[in-house]
Structures are given as C-alpha cells and as structure tokens.
Design brief:
The complex is a heterodimer. By secondary structure, chain A is an all-alpha fold. Chain A has one domain. Chain A has helices at residues 5-11, 13-45, 59-86, 89-121, 129-150, 154-187, 201-233, 238-247. Chain B has one domain (3-230). In chain B, α3 packs antiparallel against α6 and α3 packs parallel to α7. By secondary structure, chain B is an all-alpha fold. Helix content of chain B is 84%, strand content 0%. Chain B is built from 9 helices and no strands. The chains are: A mainly alpha, B mainly alpha.
Chain lengths: 248, 231
C-alpha cells in the first residue's frame, strides 16, 4: 500500500519543523486555558463526594494521567508501525520522543494513585490489578527508553524500538487481563475501588476538561521535543544551518 | 540462482539447523550447566534466607520455583544467537532463501530442547526441597512443559533486539521480564490450585493459548529484529 504523496511531503523533517512551530502556541494556550478551567471547576466547583470527601479531587489529575499513559503508548506503537512500514522518519521520531512523556504520565498516575490510596485504603500501595498493570506499563516504557538509548544509529534504534512497541501492544491486553485475574484470585473484594459509571455530571465535566488539557499538553511538549530532535539529527543540512544563522 | 546449485527444501533446512544446533550444544555441554546450577542455587537460597519451616516454604514454593525458572530461562538466552552472530552464521541464515521466521523457530526449538527440558527435569528435585506434595510436583512439571517454550520464544525477541549491543544483558531483563508476567501468574496459580485440590484446567488452557500465540508470532518478530541486528 502506498501513502499519498502529501503525507510524505508533510512529514519531511523541514516541513514538519515549520508546521509544528506554528501549531505549538495554539496547543500551549489551549493547555493553559483548559488547565485553569479544569482545575477551578474540579477543585472548587465540583461537589464534595459523599463517601470520599474532598480527597477524591486528586482524581482530576490521577485519572487523566492514567488515560494519557495508555493513550501515549498506543500513539507510540501506531507511529512506530507507520515508521517501520512506510519508512517515515518523522513517525519514528514521534515514537521515540513520546516515550519520556508517556513514562512521566505513568509515573504521575502511580504517585497520585498511591497518595489517593493512603486516605482511601489506609495504605500507599496495594497489589490491585489496575495499579499493578500500570506499574508494568511503566516497566515497558522504561524498557523502550533503555533500548533506544543503547542503540546508537537512529535508524536501527527506531526499527528495534518499533518491534518492541508492537510486541508490547500485543502483550498489554494479555498482561492486563492476567493481572486482573490474578488479583481477583488472590484478594477477592478486599479492595473497594469505587465504581464510577454513575459519576455525576458536575464531577464528570471537570474531568473531561482536565483530560483535554493533558492531551493538549502532550501535543505541545511532544512537538517541542520533536523539533529539537529534528534540529539535532539534521544538523548538517542546509535548511537547519539557515535557521540557526537567522536566529543567531 | 544458478541452476546447478540445488536448494534444499525448507523442511530439510529446518531439520538440519536443529541437528546442527543440538550438535553444537552437545560439544559445549558444560555451558548448558550454568543456567541449571543457577536455577538450583536460587531456589536453595530461599529456605536459607526466609526459614526452613515446612509450612512457609510450601506456600512459597510455586512462586519461588517459577521465578527461579524465569530467571534461569532468561540467562540461558545468551547462548541462543550469540555465537552464530559472532562467527557470521546468523548472517548466512538470514540470507538463505528459506523463510527466516521458520529458521529462527528451528533455532528456538533446539535451544528449548537443551535449556527448557533440563529445567523441567530438575523441577521435581526442587519441589522436594520446597516440600511440594506429589500432585503439586506433577502440576509444576506440566506448567513448565507448557511455559518454558513460551519463555524461549518471547525471550528470542528480546535477545534478537539486544544482540549487537554492549551490556545487552541488563537491557534484556528489562525488555523480557515484563512480558513473562502472564506465564508466571498462570503457572504459579495452577500449582497453588492443585495443592488445594482445585481444578487447574483453566490455567493450563491459558498457558496453551499463550504458547500457540507465541509460536505463531514470536518467530516473525524475532526474525525481523535479527535482520536489524545483523545489518
């Protein structure tokens, strides 16, 4: 299957650099605005939970961070596969620069989860299925980052990383369900995770705003990282030299 | 291709590769002992470190033996492609007209025969060390029979990815151990369940499914990764 020429044109490092430079301010402003709105509504306007009191409000950071941790892994796997199949450099690049951001969100989800766990469950850590699979996801991220760091040649690093990501994507559901099965087997109902399908709309809206905000933050920061990585990798080309000459 | 050169069929290439690898490991048979010794020693450390009490060891046994088996299997991966990579044989294999994935599968099978099977055979001894009852030992061997091939297959992907790297060993554990988790969960819980007199079919079916999935997909991924490594 061939990609239309426009994809290749847009994804050339130079065009990508120019286009993403124009997009970053939009993402950044969107992030700041939605963060302020989301935090205000989440922390001050949303009603107090009748069971969990005020401490549930950490959810407005925890849940979007956990969503992002999985979302970014999927983005990485898809763009790595695109890079592997159609040999698009920028797609490879997106996978490798996303990894630290994804790992950071995973870590944030784990930390906020354990801070939330202390007042709710009385302990910072339980071997709950979701916590455990989130921890394993962090290991998968760290493995990918370590593999990228170990291979010097960027092209080979991208291809090896792509295989690892694709293997990881096949494995994530298997790991997730085996962990879920394991924890129900070992612990039964000792952990009362609260069910949230029936979340009140006044609590849900700030959550969705925060989720949007986190996505915009990811978009802005991944493009910034990608731009500096492009400059580094293309440092010997003429267009990069022109940019640097103009700016200095 | 020159008509006078006869290309052997894929099947005969497959079989001769297995034979060659088995012969090579027989010639270097003392290398094969190391992961096995490691397996035994790790399990021996637990009674020394925790307590020699029968009750406690019995509860820990399935997990401890399986974790030790995971680590031993991971250590033994080192012999899977390394020497072939260093002397250029791997490049020849990759250049052959046969499906690379099938030839990689042949290498994995012969590797499992010399590393996985001894682990299965040693398991009853370790089961005795940890006071596993008879039915527990039988289930342990069954889960190892289904599980160790998965370890070799999935490990082959990690090994292929880290082949040409300095200090690939530590990296390998970071890549491979998270992927081993489902095998550990189902195997250890099957042994647990059989000691409690419960049904273990569910866990064994799951292991069987994982085995089938990894036989079909892992050689493909490993062969692609090897191509990158030999370039």
């Amino acid at each position: 299957m061939k990609l239309p020429a426009i994809v290749h044109k847009f994804s050339s490092p130079k065009n990508f650099y120019v286009m993403s430079g124009k997009m970053i301010p939009w993402f950044m402003w969107g992030f700041v605005l939605s963060l302020l709105v989301g935090l205000y509504y989440g922390l001050f306007v949303a009603p107090t939970d009748y069971q969990q009191g005020e401490s549930y409000r950490i959810m407005y950071v925890h849940v979007p961070a956990a969503w992002m941790s999985m979302f970014i892994y999927m983005i990485m796997a898809v763009s790595a596969a695109v890079g592997l199949i159609w040999r698009i450099k920028t797609a490879d690049l997106m996978a490798s620069v996303s990894a630290p951001i994804g790992a950071a969100f995973t870590f944030l989800a784990l930390v906020t989860g354990s801070l939330w766990g202390k007042p709710m469950w009385g302990t910072y850590w339980v071997w709950d299925a979701r916590l455990t699979s989130e921890l394993i996801l962090l290991f998968l991220y760290l493995g990918f980052i370590a593999l990228q760091a170990a291979i010097e040649e960027p092209r080979n690093a991208a291809r090896a990383g792509a295989i690892l990501l694709i293997v990881g994507v096949v494995n994530i559901p298997i790991i997730h369900y085996s962990v879920e099965w394991w924890s129900t087997l070992h612990q039964g109902a000792t952990v009362a995770k609260f069910d949230k399908p029936s979340m009140h709309i006044s609590m849900l809206i700030p959550l969705l705003v925060m989720a949007t905000s986190f996505k915009l933050y990811y978009a802005a920061s991944v493009l910034m990282r990608a731009r500096s990585e492009i400059l580094r990798r293309e440092q010997n080309t003429r267009w990069v030299k022109e940019i640097i000459d103009n700016e200095s | 291709m020159n008509a006078s050169v006869q290309t052997p069929s894929t099947l005969s290439a497959f079989i001769s590769l297995i034979k060659r690898d088995l012969m090579l490991s027989y010639r270097h048979r003392n290398e094969l002992l190391n992961p096995l010794l490691f397996f035994v020693i790790v399990v021996t450390l637990f009674p020394l470190g925790v307590s020699p009490e029968k009750q406690l060891l019995q509860t820990m046994a399935p997990g401890v033996i399986w974790v030790a088996a995971l680590l031993a299997a991971m250590l033994s991966l080192d012999t899977l492609f390394k020497s072939d990579y260093e002397d250029g044989t791997l490049e020849q294999i990759m250049l052959s007209p046969h499906s690379n994935a099938l030839l990689v599968l042949a290498k994995i099978i012969s590797h499992w025969l010399v590393t996985g099977v001894p682990i299965i055979l040693l398991a009853p001894l370790l089961g005795l060390f940890m006071f596993l009852p008879g039915e527990g030992i039988i289930t342990l061997m069954l889960t190892l029979l289904l599980g160790t091939p998965i370890l070799s297959l999935v490990g082959a992907i990690g090994m292929a990815l880290t082949l040409g790297l300095n200090r690939g060993g530590m990296l390998l554990s970071l890549l491979v151990l998270p992927l081993y988790i489902p095998v550990l969960i189902f195997s250890a819980s099957a042994v647990d369940a059989s000691m409690a007199g419960l049904e273990i079919k569910g866990q064994l079916y799951f292991l069987g499914a994982l085995l089938v999935l990894s036989i079909t997909l892992a050689p493909l991924a490993a062969a692609t990764a090897l191509k990158i490594s030999v370039e």
